[in-house]
């Protein structure tokens, strides 16, 4: 394993984000860094991969300007991203609402989080603030998954929850992959009068490195070429199923129909039978990508323009 996949976020004012974007891109290109780095006036959200020998030069460069940044590191045998993207993004995490970080939740260490799960009562709610497809392949036991189309609906969800539960009695525990969503979303609960709001420090990635699979079911969805990974070194039970036949599987494919492109779970046999498509209708779609059977698919890469004009035979 010659590469390091790293994730971190920085929540502090950045005076000239456009200039910072250029600086980051220039430096990361010298290290052959790949990944997605989003920057705006309020901070940075980054997931990237580097050759292992470049991790120290990058860390030294990062911590010089942003001391105390916690960088989560995982090993991998190749770059986990196809290219380098460094750009301005209005929201580091989709919410469509401003936030006050000083009103965020209490950070719990991995050990404190595990202990609180063990001691939870009927007034304790454990919230998974990730997408459905993330939750489906792995989550903490006893988790409640909010139901809505996009996370821009989260403020409304919190408002409704404040009507259904007593904010003064309810203990809200929330977690996400790396921690940044909880930093922002926890502010909404405090704004709605919830007095006890807790967030898993460092997210599931850090928890797995420190606590292993304790109280965790399944595996972890990640937004890079790996798609689904264990949260710890030891194997864990697969809890999700193939969309087509119901076999226990946690392998995701992007639908080969270019006009669908949905992410769906499938075993290799069904993926081959369905030609990489999620439905029969998509098999007949006019713009269908060629499908190459593989047990470890990567996220869909956009085809060159000239390859999009006709469907494969």
From TrEMBL:
It catalyses: uridine(34) in tRNA + AH2 + O2 = 5-hydroxyuridine(34) in tRNA + A + H2O. Its EC number is 1.14.-.-. It is an enzyme of class 1 (oxidoreductase). The keyword Oxidoreductase applies. It comes from the Bacteria. Keywords: Oxidoreductase, tRNA processing. Transmembrane segments: none annotated. Pfam families: Rhodanese (PF00581), Rhodanese_C (PF12368), UPF0176_N (PF17773). Residues 120-216 form the Rhodanese domain. InterPro entries: Rhodanese-like_dom, Rhodanese-like_dom_sf, Rhodanese_C, TrhO, TRHO_N. The keyword tRNA processing applies. Belongs to the TrhO family. PANTHER family: RHODANESE-LIKE DOMAIN-CONTAINING PROTEIN 7-RELATED, THIOSULFATE SULFURTRANSFERASE/RHODANESE-LIKE DOMAIN-CONTAINING PROTEIN 2. Catalyzes oxygen-dependent 5-hydroxyuridine (ho5U) modification at position 34 in tRNAs. HAMAP family: TrhO. This is tRNA uridine(34) hydroxylase. It comes from Candidatus Neptunichlamydia vexilliferae. The lineage of its organism: Bacteria, Pseudomonadati, Chlamydiota, Chlamydiia, Parachlamydiales. The gene is trhO.
